[in-house]
Amino acid sequence: MTLALLHTSPVHVPVFDALRDADHPGTALRHVVREELLATAAALGPEAVADEVEAVVADLVAEGADAVLCTCSTIGAVAEAAGVAAGVPVLRVDRPMAAAAVRAGRVTVLAALTSTLEPTRALLTEEAAGAGLPADVRTVLVDGAWDRFTAGDSDGFLDLVAASADEVRDADVIVLAQGSMAGAAERTTTAIPVLSSPRPGLAAAVAAAGR
Asked: Hey, which bits of 41-146 come out as E strands?
C-alpha cells in the first residue's frame, strides 16, 4: 500500500514522515512537492491550478498510489475535485479537522496566508451543513506570520500563530488552517481547544489507501 502526498512546501515532508513513524509504521509514503501551485493559487485563486493538480494526481495514480493526500489547504478543494477522475481516493488534509471543529460549536480560524481563509471557511460551512449544524465561523489572518514562514524563521512563525491563538475570545474551538501551523498548538496557553490538520488528515488517508 502506497500513499502519495502532494505538498506545496518541503517543510511538510519531515512532519508527515514523523507522524507516519509514530502512528502508521510501515506505511509507504511518496512525497511530491510543488511549491509553484501555492504561489499561483495565492495570486490567481485555486481554480487557476485545477488542471495542473489534476495532472499531478493522475501521474501519482499511474505510478501506483493507492490514495493521494493533498496537504495544502489552499488547493485542497481542487485536489478533491481531481479525485473524481483519479480512480483512487484523493483527500484534503484539513477535512477531518473541519468535521471535528464544527461539532464543537463556534469556530475561529487562524491562517497565515490570505488565500487559505476562504477555502477553509467554505470547508467548515460544508461540514456543518452535512452534519445539520449551524456554521459559526470567524477568520483571523495572523499578521506577519507568512513573512516569517517564507524567511525560514519557523520559531518566529509558530510563536506569532500561538500568540494569535491566545488572543482568541468567544470561540469553542480554534482551527489552524494550514498544516505548517500545527506546531503552534504546543506553544499556546489558551484553554480553548486548538485543532490542526496533519495527524487526523494522515490517519484518514492511510485508512482510505488501505481499503
From this structure: 67-70, 90-92, 107-111, 137-141
Residue 163, C-beta contacts closer than 8 angstroms, at least 6 positions apart: none
Q: 7: helix, coil or strand?
A: strand
Burial 42-78 (b: 16+ CB within 10 A, else e): beeebeebbebbbebbeebbeeebbbbbbbbbbbbbb
Cβ neighbours, 10 Å, residue 176: 30
**Environment class of residue 25 by beta-carbon count within 10 Å: exposed (0-12), middle (13-18) or buried (19+)?**
exposed
Tens of pLDDT along 148-160? 999 999 999 999 9
Distances (CA, A) of 97 to 59, 154, 156, 201: 27, 23, 24, 7
Amino acid at 99: A
pTM equals 0.93
Tell me the residue length of the chain: 211
